[in-house]
Amino acid sequence: MQIRLAGKSDNDQIQALSKRCHQEGMITFFVNRSPRFNTLHKLLDSDSWHYVVEDDGKIVGQVGVIHYMATVLGVPRKFAYMMDLRLDDAYRKGLTAFRMVKKAIDHVLSSDTDFVVGNFLKSNQNSLVFASGRAGIPEAFHLGDNRIFNLLPLFNLKTDPRFTIGHPTVEDLSELVQVYQSYAGRFRIAPVINESTLTHYLGALENLSLNNFLVARENGRIKAVTALWDEHLYKSYQVLELTPAIRLVNGALKLFSPVMNLPSPIRLNQPLKQLSMVLYAHKDSPDALKTLFHHVNNTYRGSEYTLITLYAQKKDPVFDLLKSCRGVSVQSEMYLYAQNPAIYKELQDDGRPDWLNLELTV
């Protein structure tokens, strides 16, 4: 058995591994990446990489890393997000997972990267052992719980007439950056979003142009922004099974969606139709961002999409702005591995939430 860097010739085996490692919950699914297992990662970060575990010519495990910049207590730092952690059932009870994760973390922390972030399903004991400092893996700092909110646009929601909603233009880029940088000051850890970052996202990613952004203006000034990203070109969730409660809701959608403005029903053995709400922020105007969220809800009632997903830390005040929205949530836990663990005390003493990078949604 060997752990090695993945190459182009591994694509078919890695895609097959993903199908075998489906994720169970309210919706049981597997992640389908296209056209290659790492297309999206490479578009965001040309230095991203994956390790695979190979046993007698068969790939039985993988873990990937994508890099990004974020501020930590106001200081720009380089991060690596550890994602795509998968392992065949037959290898989950031994030390294979430890060896794979340790090799990935060691590789990152031996570089110029300051932090590694790992995200695990809430209360998943098999995953949480990676954070406990065992088997040579560094001890991690618990950043907090995250929440994936899947908005179901069922009813019209009130918007605030003070704000004018529309799409930004190229001339608005500098003002958008000001909004993002102002918003970042509210957080312990926050993305570094400058004009270069925005230009890279807009140029590299399909379905994430300025036409996919919405801004709320007051007296001509941008007070809030969000983007709606359809990432199906790169990643989709192939639906395998639904829980009884979700089947009941889905049955109602199938029954009434032909005659009412309701979300598209979930189809088994087909990709889940969803949009990701990303790159949201406001400049001292939570009401403006709330109005944008309500506008998105109203716009996508009766559309081809079933869910509109927002991913944030559970204690992020953004969820106060979504209280009027209907939806279902999935929780996870995020851990931080640092080059210098002394920073854990500073992070512990800072009570602010963390604002999650776009890269953490891939």
Automatic annotation (TrEMBL):
It comes from the Bacteria. CDD domains: NAT_SF. GO terms for molecular function: acyltransferase activity, transferring groups other than amino-acyl groups. InterPro entries: Acyl_CoA_acyltransferase (IPR016181), GNAT_dom (IPR000182). Residues 1-158 form the N-acetyltransferase domain. PROSITE patterns: GNAT. This is N-acetyltransferase domain-containing protein. It comes from Rhodohalobacter mucosus.
